[in-house]
Design a protein that fits this description.
Layout lengths: L1 H7 L6 H21 L7 H13 L10 E5 L7 H6 L1 H10 L5 E2 L11 H5 L7 E2 L10 E6 L2 H13 L5 E5 L2 H4 L9 E6 L5 H8 L3 E12 L2 H4 L3 H6 L2 E11 L2 E10 L13 H4 L4
Parallel strand pairs: 1-4, 1-6, 4-5, 6-7
Antiparallel strand pairs: 2-3, 7-9, 8-9
Length: 277
């Protein structure tokens, strides 16, 4: 079933990757029967709404270097992306001379400001990458120990060496110099209000790197992000819409353009209760 569903959404993976996803499916179902990881119980829904949704990002960009997953839904999108990491890196090496990725490490100057601003909504910036580019490093951040343990068990059973977990309260790690502004990408499939996600994600990013949010396509919510973007020194550089299981989904790409004020994120659950709007 996994191979057929992947092909339905135009994902082509080799047999080794398919076998890993089949193993992950069984591991997830077994753990879900004990810990209640997800309300989805049937295989079709797990594959489509967790595996495939997580992988849609690979249709639009290639990730690199150090990646954080916050408020993850028991390993999504982190684990599916980690499973296909080896395949992604082989593709990168084959296409190195012509590859385009989302604007990493782009330094804006007065000389190029106007041309750059005219392109940020839809254009990728060219990047020459070292041909010996290392595999991705995924960091799963959470304050709940049982989630971390589940992810670690999945990673071990799936022979994934590119996953690390960080056990910390949000208010601690976000102001820890070791982690603050240290990530190249931050990902989230959380259902939280978008300005709230921004406040938690942007402080973790290096300047000029990217936060990517998986969301339902909601025009009303997306119109309410302007104040948060300005306050957190970031901007939308692209959005990508896609259909999944009769729903409209969207990937929102947010570039950090300057350092984040040290007061963000605010303490405890203030970003949830009083988002920047």
């Amino acid at each position: 079933m996994i191979k057929q569903l992947f092909e339905l959404y135009d994902f082509q993976f080799d047999e080794e990757i398919i076998i890993k996803f089949e193993k992950f499916l069984q591991l997830f179902k077994e753990k879900n029967s004990v810990v209640n990881l997800s309300s989805l119980r049937d295989e079709y829904s797990i594959i489509e709404k967790h595996f495939i949704d997580s992988l849609f990002l690979t249709k639009f960009t290639k990730l690199s270097w150090k990646i954080a997953d916050i408020w993850t839904w028991w390993g999504f999108p982190l684990l599916p992306l980690a499973i296909v990491d080896d395949k992604m890196m082989k593709w990168w090496n084959d296409e190195m001379n012509n590859e385009k990725v989302i604007n990493p490490n782009y330094i804006e100057t007065n000389a190029n400001k106007n041309s750059y601003d005219s392109e940020i909504n839809s254009e990728w910036q060219d990047l020459s990458l070292n041909s010996n580019l290392e595999s991705l490093n995924f960091y799963w951040i959470d304050s709940i120990a049982k989630k971390l343990k589940a992810i670690e068990e999945f990673a071990t059973d799936l022979w994934l060496e590119n996953i690390k977990t960080i056990h910390s309260r949000f208010e601690d790690i976000w102001h820890d110099k070791q982690h603050r502004e240290s990530f190249d990408y931050v990902l989230s499939r959380a259902t939280a209000y978008f300005p709230t996600l921004l406040e938690y994600a942007i402080p973790l990013l290096k300047v000029w790197w990217i936060f990517i949010a998986y969301k339902l396509d909601n025009d009303i919510e997306l119109k309410e992000w302007e104040k948060a973007l300005k306050e957190l020194n970031c901007r939308i550089i692209d959005t990508k819409k896609y259909s999944l299981a009769w729903t409209q989904r969207i990937l929102i790409f947010v570039e950090k353009i300057w350092v984040t004020n040290v007061k963000y994120p605010r303490n405890a659950w203030i970003p949830l209760k009083k988002p920047i709007i």
